[in-house]
Q: What sequence folds into this?
């Protein structure tokens, strides 16, 4: 497909007199997170937490010799309550024991489905052919299964761990979605199972955020008459303690952000610190990644400001200066920048400088270099989009997507997410992520297109550019048909 020019009616002047300014609503949080949590964790609470944790650990070890379904339910419950991060080694031992055991084929639908899901979540290879035994002679799932709501629910959740070519799991998804929906509509399912079914149909486990799902499942579990009191008590206490830690982290990052005062100095940019931190919790929530969360959350603040500068405020001449300064990464470049860009560039250098100091102490300075390099790549890609728009150039979809994979920011964010993690993160992992492997490339494409589709009405360079690109594709298609 050939490239073309944007219609003049779609392009506004990029001069200083008329900027492509977007109008973002201010942060809805105000100063609510500036203060640290008032709740102090006393020694008695910490001791209770440790005692309960050891009780749960013993439960996992003892369950090794129990009946299969009981093992599976216990491990699944611990995971869904959000406390499995305390018992990774013990859970792995149980799952490996299950994986290596030659269980008979007369398992129930619930047992087979739960076993399949837990093993696949662990990365253990189990075949989808396990579910053939639940089909009739005509190759359809037995209708007798429709009376087993727990089994249907587990098969539904298991179907979300399918891979390409697993047609039986595609069929399972359709079958279970239909019949769980019918059971829900008939109001024949007792609570709390009915609530679990309703939520699963809205959002399966595979697509949930761990902290939100844990909080929700705790509510469901406490209403289950057969719940384990020790496990429930530990889950509630652990959730509250971890939430206090997360609030402390957010307070610290909020004070850093408030000290920069960029929301006031650069009003054209989004102030989405809290939302960014919550996104980071979706990456990792465990206590040992506190420093990593701080780095990633601050990076999101910086990349958001840079994004809005390129997409929603700067002139092409100014953006050229910013791109050059970021590529050089030198404090001497500050004097060459417009005043408003200086307010961003200096804190950017300071932030990464603090990262370098921290990593030097840990003898891991190479990590920050990878983070800086990917940040530079995003800046370069942002500038390409701004240049296309300013010069009325409509890229082909191939050109657009090649650049958009970088502007999605996933390569940069994934690399950055490794910086503050433990010693198990190696240079090889940084090299792998920074070279855009298939899984990151696919995630970037999905993220970029979802973002463009949901925010296409926003007054920004990239979105108007995408609209023009798509319009050009349609024009070329029609032209081809006519010819």
A:
């Amino acid at each position: 497909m050939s490239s073309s020019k944007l219609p003049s009616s779609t392009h506004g002047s990029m001069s200083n007199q008329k900027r492509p300014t977007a109008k973002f609503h201010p942060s809805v949080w105000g100063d609510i997170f500036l203060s640290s949590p008032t709740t102090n964790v006393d020694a008695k609470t910490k001791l209770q937490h440790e005692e309960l944790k050891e009780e749960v650990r013993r439960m996992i070890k003892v369950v090794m010799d129990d009946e299969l379904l009981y093992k599976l339910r216990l491990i699944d419950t611990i995971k869904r309550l959000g406390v499995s991060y305390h018992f990774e080694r013990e859970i792995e031992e149980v799952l490996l024991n299950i994986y290596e055991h030659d269980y008979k084929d007369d398992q129930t639908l619930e047992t087979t489905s739960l076993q399949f899901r837990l093993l696949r979540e662990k990365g253990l290879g189990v075949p989808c052919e396990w579910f053939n035994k639940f089909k009739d002679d005509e190759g359809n799932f037995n209708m007798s299964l429709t009376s087993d709501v727990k089994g249907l629910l587990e098969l539904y959740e298991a179907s979300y761990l399918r891979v390409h070519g697993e047609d039986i799991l595609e069929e399972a998804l359709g079958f279970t979605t239909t019949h769980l929906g019918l059971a829900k509509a008939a109001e024949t399912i007792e609570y709390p199972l009915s609530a679990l079914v309703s939520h699963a149909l809205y959002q399966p486990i595979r697509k949930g955020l761990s902290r939100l799902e844990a909080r929700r499942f705790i509510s469901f579990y406490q209403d289950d008459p057969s719940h384990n009191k020790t496990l429930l008590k530990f889950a509630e206490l652990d959730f509250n303690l971890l939430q206090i830690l997360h609030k402390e982290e957010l307070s610290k990052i909020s004070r850093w952000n408030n000290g920069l005062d960029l929301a006031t100095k650069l009003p054209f940019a989004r102030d989405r610190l809290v939302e960014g931190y919550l996104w980071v919790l979706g990456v990792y929530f465990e206590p040992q990644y506190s420093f990593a969360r701080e780095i990633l959350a601050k990076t999101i603040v910086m990349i958001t400001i840079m994004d809005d500068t390129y997409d929603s405020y700067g002139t092409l001449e100014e953006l050229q200066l910013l791109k050059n300064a970021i590529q050089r990464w030198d404090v001497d470049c500050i004097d060459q920048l417009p005043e408003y860009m200086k307010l961003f560039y200096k804190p950017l250098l300071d932030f990464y400088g603090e990262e370098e100091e921290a990593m030097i102490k840990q003898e891991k300075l190479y990590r920050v270099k990878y983070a800086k390099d990917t940040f530079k790549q995003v800046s370069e890609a942002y500038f390409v989009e701004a240049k296309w728009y300013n010069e009325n150039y409509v890229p082909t979809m191939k050109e657009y997507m090649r650049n958009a994979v970088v502007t999605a920011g996933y390569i940069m964010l994934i690399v950055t997410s490794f910086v503050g993690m433990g010693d198990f993160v190696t240079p090889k992992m940084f090299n792998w992520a920074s070279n855009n492997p298939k899984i990151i490339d696919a995630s970037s494409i999905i993220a970029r297109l979802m973002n463009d589709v949901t925010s296409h009405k926003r007054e920004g360079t990239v979105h108007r550019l995408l609209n023009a690109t798509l319009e050009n594709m349609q024009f070329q298609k029609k032209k081809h048909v006519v010819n």
Observations:
- The first helix runs from residue 43 to 62.
- The radius of gyration is 26 Å.
